[in-house]
Amino acid sequence: MSLDVQNLSRALPAARRGFGLLLAFHHLFIAPSHLHAAANDNNIEWNGVFSDETFRQPKYPGRGESFAVELRVFRGDITSAKVRTWDGTERKFDLAWNRHDGPYDIWRASVAGSM
To answer: What's the pTM value of the predicted model, to 2 decimals?
Structure first.
């Protein structure tokens, strides 16, 4: 979020400039204190969870071919995760922490191919 004070002061009449700036600064400094950071607290921040075919190598594995899959989550949000596959039988593979990527942790698993 950015605040353009110069444009705000031009848009508000002189009598209301102080109130407008006070309101804008209130939102910058008070509202974020109500936000909760991702943490190992048994509460997954689901808006930070993401994976799609771009997080898979090879991107389109052939039948029976093993592949690696990655999961992006907010940094420090989870302590473990599993990949669940189904090919007539349910199989689960543990993901392991792989690296940081900005505000995210990347978890990775190798999934064995099956027929």
So the answer is: 0.66
N-terminal to C-terminal alpha carbon distance within the chain: 50
Q: Which two tokens stand for residue 35?
A: 């936000």
Q: Whole-angstrom Cα distance, residue 7 to residue 4?
A: 6
Listed residue (105, 40, 46, 107) closest to 78, CA to CA: 40
* CATH number of the domain that residue 79 is part of: 2.60.40.10
pLDDT per position as a tens digit, 90-111: 999 999 999 999 999 999 999 9
- 43: which 2 tokens? 């509460």
Q: Are 93 and 110 in contact (CB under 8 A)?
A: yes
Q: Are 22 and 53 in the same domain?
A: no
For residue range 5-26, list pLDDT tens digits in order: 344 445 445 544 444 444 444 4
- List beta partners, residue 74: 104
Residue 39 domain flag: no
